[in-house]
Amino acid sequence: xxxxxTAKLKRLGRRLAxxxxxxxxxxxxxxxxxxLFGAGSFYDESSFILLSCIPLALVLxxxxxxxxxxxxxxxxxxxxxxxxxxxxxxxxxLVHNAGWIPRFxxxxxxxxxxxxxxxESTNLVMSVSxxxxxxxxxxxxxxxxxxxxxxxxxxxxxxxxxxxRMTRRLSFRNEILVYPRPARLSEEFERRIMRSARFYGESSxxxxxxxxxxxxxxYLPGQNVGRIHWRTTARxxxxxxxxxxxxxxxxxxxxxxxxxIGDAGSLRQRLESAIGLIAGLTYFLTHQGVLFRFAWHGxxxxxxxxxxxxxxxxxxxxxxxxxxxxxKRLSEWVPEVGVGIGNEVxxxxxxxxxxxxxxxxxxxTGAIVIGAGGPDFKDYLRFDYLGRRSIASSELExxxxxxxxxxxx
Length: 409
Fold this sequence. Notes:
By secondary structure, the protein is of the alpha+beta class. The chain has three domains: 12-179, Immunoglobulin-like (Sandwich), CATH 2.60.40; 187-204 and 251-402, 3-Layer(aba) Sandwich (Rossmann fold); 206-247, no CATH class. The protein is built from ten helices and 18 strands. It has helices at residues 2-17, 24-43, 46-69, 187-201, 230-236, 267-288, 310-321, 330-337, 354-360, 393-398, and strands at residues 21-22, 73-78, 82-84, 88-97, 103-110, 116-118, 123-128, 133-134, 137-142, 146-157, 164-179, 213-218, 240-244, 251-257, 291-297, 301-303, 344-350, 368-371. Strands 1, 3, 5, 7, 10 and 11 form a six-stranded mixed β-sheet that branches. Strands 2, 4, 6, 8 and 9 form a five-stranded antiparallel β-sheet that branches. A five-stranded mixed β-sheet has the order 16-15-14-17-18, with helices on both faces. Strand 10 (146-157) and strand 11 (164-179) form a beta hairpin. Helix 6 (267-288) packs antiparallel against helix 7 (310-321). The longest helix has 24 residues, at 46-69. It is elongated, with a radius of gyration of 31 Å. The two termini are 44 Å apart.
């Protein structure tokens, strides 16, 4: 019985919520009408009674107008499928008038997500002709990584007199995946990474007589400039490098250990710092054209294949966008990844002290272990003149790593 009553009350509330509601000015007009009607009845003055009909008629006409004004309005939302946290996103609202009469003065209020910061609280569409579409815009910034869902849009109108307001809720679901903000690596850390790349980039088998050339390919930043073939470079107009028989490129494996350990009060901060550093490494290695892969264990093991380029960058950032705390310790899942194979350089970022990870794992020679809660964590980061440790939006826009054309929905 109580459930039925609750359901009926909710249904009644939804129906009342879409009815025209007088504004403050509308209540003034309604009150004036009642006062004139009361005065006319008290003093038996028919002129007062006639005058009382004017403000009431304006309120009723406005109620009918707003009811017609918000009917048969359709909308779609256009926004990128992915972005970085803290990066400005342009959101377009396509408002279509599917009716036979023009619509005027429509106020659009998009979903108010707690992590979405907009430059305008609402958008105003002055007029939409029958069968036409208006396209208002607003700029928004998502402050937190993850999958965000935009669904509802409120259309409000008080046209033409502003005496009665009516609101209608429209639904159109959009999902946007927000990548973590890549951290800016320190110059010393970048040099350390590139030293490893150049060391392993030299052919280890060339010293054993297997240095025969079997082809040329385009030079990528971080490779040995001593093997650039200048004749081919002059002919093609872009740097070309010799490919040696048996040569293997340098490669990295990025390991993210998010098993909760240490002070519970700083776990979330250390998690975001670790993910930001991995995102910074992904951005840097992609920008340098170095071969690398990524591995992380949440509810299950997520390990990517070695790759380079924008597609590889976005595939890893999609995993980082929804990364959380791990359910297994590092020692339980890292053997499945195959760390330290061949010329691969492991880079491990853990939430706990790096000494524990170094003592419990055999990552091989040249492994880089970073503890997100360690006192030297800031040594791996670089701050700009404003004190920011993340990559700026202008750098992300100009970099090839985020230059992929983003489809809209």
